[in-house]
Amino acid sequence: MRALLLDLGGTVFRSGSEMLALLGDAEPATRDVVARRGPLGPETDDLWDKMIRSEITEREYWQYRSDEVGAALGRPGWPIQEFMHTLYGLAGDGIIRPAAAELMAEAKAAGHPVGVLTNDLRAFHGDTAMAAHPVLADVDALVDASVTGVLKPDPRAYALAARALDREPGEIVFVDDMPWNVRGAREAGMVALELDLTDPDAVWPQARAALGLAGVGV
């Protein structure tokens, strides 16, 4: 029986780009900054494009955004964890993608192991409520690269997740919102699907079908 393996931020949790829109509503001083929020903002986000071209890392992207937002709010040198705590605190109970939660519950009920492979849980969120969210208490394996030190798309990250789920890579359906992480999972032998931040619900029927859950087609 295949296992379900999910990225966290942007996949199970709503993306930081979505959260930036909420920040702009809550803090008008940040609106010029948050108009640039990856593929979701009204203005071109050159930093995002650099990240997609692998000229900067995902962590560097979010550090730049933290610095810009901190400066707009009069908080120079704002620690990244405080930025993320503020950002994700805006969504309240709406932080989880409902379709992701539904698939996780459905997979568990059908006997499929469910795991998380994330690069930045502790690095970005420390011991805040995000790191202890109830949805994480129900997973069979949680592999956090900010703890292991092995970040996606390093092949070893996927190997660690496969070992934690007690599955071969080919027995794992993986979903992530970053294209290089999806490519890395495919190269590792997993069935890898990319979540499109502009249409985040589209991937879940594909994942459900890849798991072989009854009554669902791609």
Structural domain tally:
2
Order of helices and strands: EHHHHHHEHHEHHEHEH
Q: Under the CATH scheme, which class of the largest domain?
A: Alpha Beta
CATH architecture annotation of the largest domain: 3-Layer(aba) Sandwich
| Quaternary | single chain
For the largest beta-sheet, the strand count, sense and barrel status come to:
5 strands, parallel
- Tell me the overall shape: globular
Total E-strand runs: 5
Structural class: alpha/beta
Strand order of the largest sheet: 3-2-1-4-5
Q: What proportion of the residues is helical, as a percent range?
A: 40-55%
End-to-end distance = 19 Å
- Give the low-confidence spans: none
Q: Tell me, rounded to a whole number, the average pLDDT.
A: 93
What does the model show?
The protein has 218 residues and is of the alpha/beta class. The relative contact order is 0.17. Helix 11 links the parallel strand 4 and strand 5. It has 2 domains: 129 residues, Rossmann fold (3-Layer(aba) Sandwich), CATH 3.40.50; 78 residues. Helices cover 46% and strands 10% of the residues. The model has no long low-confidence stretch (mean pLDDT 93). The protein starts with a strand and ends in a 7-residue tail after the last helix. Strands 3-2-1-4-5 form a 5-stranded parallel beta sheet, sandwiched between helices.
